[in-house]
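Attaching the record inline, Q. Sequence:
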Amino acid sequence: MLISREEPPADEGGSGYALYEFDAREWDAVLEDLFGTSLLGQSARRRWAEGLDPSITVHRFVSAREDGELVGVALLELPQRDNTHLAFVSIVVPAAHRGHGIGAALFDDAAALAASEGRDNLEIWTWDTLVEPGPGTISARQGDGAIDAAAPGARFLLKRGFQLVQVDTMSGWDLPPQAGLEAAAAEARAATPEGYRLVQWHGDTPERWVGDAALLQVAMSTDAPIGGSDLRAEVIDADRIRAIDRGRRAGGLDQLVTSVEHDGTLVGITRLVRDTARPQVGDQWDTLVLGHIGATGSAGS
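Structure, as predicted:
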């Protein structure tokens, strides 16, 4: 088995892009096996674009090959403007090649690579089905539900000293007919308190709002539940909002943003994001109302 460190491609489809395609394809297979669908997965283009601006995030790959065949990858995400003590790691090995030490070899090299980049904390997310808390399960300090400690992903990470610090629950909603949605939207507008206005945009953040969007994003980075994670406040300004928009477009993501404006300032936000590679699904991201505003009743608007 050959373990190699590889640079991600600067261009979509360039040399090394196959690593993103492999990563996306094999995680889709994991989701299909667990949940019977891959709609929760991320496309190769989307993952590639997340590392497009190296002033924000740097990607590093560790690959495993046997007789020239790619049999596993580890992807490291290294924040550059904040949280520079962290490395986010994703490791995936096809089912046919598991149980032969490939994942362990990838992890060992990825951990060494992260340390060489000055990172002293690794965070890894894994997919799993929720179970009722009880013997043989583990629960995080924050988040609903528990997972089976003997599940492959959990067992792999616990063996290497990781702790479960948070459980994120993914929920789905089949949209009702359009008429019902329009009625609910009209009801929300009618309930908006005096002095507040709903502001909506499709695509990139309008220049008028980039500064406010940056402040809301910073608040989101400290307001969102993080359990026992060592995530710290993000450094976000107007230029970074523009860079995020560029990366979103490059990754094939479309967005619809709804905000609440009060006295000329945005004080709340939610966004719906759709991956054009998976058009059946929309993801809700970053729902936040600033703390001093929520008490007015606008939190539900």
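The helical segments are 17-35, 44-50, 102-116, 152-159, 178-191, 210-223, 238-250, 291-294. Confidence is low (pLDDT under 50) at residues 295-301.

More tomorrow.
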